[in-house]
Design a protein that fits this description.
Layout lengths: L31 H9 L1 H9 L8 H16 L9 H6 L1 H11 L12 H15 L12 E9 L5 E11 L5 E7 L6 H22 L5 E6 L4 E5 L3 H24 L43 H5 L1
Parallel strand pairs: 3-4
Antiparallel strand pairs: 1-2, 2-3, 4-5
Helix pairs in contact: 1-2, 3-5, 3-6, 7-8
Length: about 300
């Protein structure tokens, strides 16, 4: 990603601390992933944003975090040093740092599989150089935390993989994707995410980004998009409508399941009424400070 949603310092964050039972539970902010959760299945949104149920990260997500960490470190180097060999060399220390902060991740990458895992990550940063040359420009920021509150009180928050500003002032937002380029339905989801980023920059900087750029490392594909202000204002109304629906469900606890083919990949299927499960008692809508922690799936999507 990217603009997105535990305080630990890995890349955009590390696995959130689910099941928060503290006296003051944090009010959720709206991020691309949480908005996507509610659109996909309101009950999934509740499990993730309100109940904060635990979800184990996948091996692919951890690999994505390693690659994001290496690319962030790469742009902290002088331009002349950002060569492919250096990027490859950053994979091992990035993995070691992530593992030191989240030791349980070793279960996803046993010692006898470590070399294969790291080689896969090295192949992704190598593929990055087929899409752009980082020695030829400077990034204004990497893994930038951004937030804004809309006029109707909707709090938007996320982390941007990279923001570039041209000498002439044009802004480019760049998001790294460690998977393959999406099909049409997933492309729409990706553009939703990028419009979210563009809207936050419009509200925080007063400018419309000249380009939104998605780099799909596994397939060597680039998806670019040039938004306009009227489109972003319409999108703002869409986000406000989503938040209004979330708040209405939050008052009653009526987050209804919305079964689809994606249910087979849901960590909480056993708790879903659509499959004979029973959700935990609704804890009520959080009233504390706004949520400040990205979920792990949001870090690397």
């Amino acid at each position: 990603m990217s603009i997105s949603e535990s305080p630990a310092p890995v890349t955009k964050g590390s696995p959130s601390q689910p099941g928060d039972t503290s006296a003051t539970r944090r009010r959720p902010a709206l991020s691309p992933s949480r908005a996507g959760d509610f659109k996909q299945c309101p009950l999934l949104y509740r499990f993730r944003a309100v109940d904060r149920l635990p979800e184990a990260p996948s091996r692919a997500q951890v690999k994505g975090t390693v690659v994001h960490a290496a690319l962030e470190t790469l742009f902290g180097l002088p331009a002349a040093e950002r060569v492919p060999r250096k990027a490859v060399d950053l994979i091992l220390p990035s993995w070691e740092r992530i593992l030191a902060e989240a030791p349980d991740l070793i279960d996803l990458v046993p010692e006898d599989e470590r070399d294969t895992f790291l080689d896969e990550a090295r192949a992704l940063v190598t593929a990055y150089y087929e899409l752009e040359d980082p020695t030829r420009f400077e990034a204004e920021s990497c893994e930038q935390r951004v937030e804004t509150e809309l006029a109707d009180g909707v709090l938007l928050r996320g982390f941007v993989d990279r923001i570039d500003v041209a000498p002439t002032g044009e802004v480019r937002v760049v998001d790294y994707k460690t998977g393959r380029a999406p099909r049409e339905m997933s492309e729409s989801k990706a553009l939703f995410q990028m419009k979210f980023y563009a809207l936050v920059l419009l509200r925080t900087r007063g400018i419309v980004p000249a380009q939104l750029r998605l780099l799909y490392l596994a397939s060597g594909t680039v998806l670019t998009y040039a938004p306009d202000e009227d489109e972003l204002l319409r999108f703002e109304r869409t986000l406000s409508a989503i938040w209004k629906a979330i708040l209405a469900a939050g008052v009653t606890g009526d987050f209804r399941p919305k079964p689809s083919r994606l249910c087979d990949w849901c960590d909480h299927k056993s708790l879903c009424p659509s499959f004979g499960g029973t959700p935990p008692p609704y804890p009520g809508w959080p009233e504390g400070p706004a949520e400040d922690a990205p979920g792990f799936e949001e870090i690397v999507e």
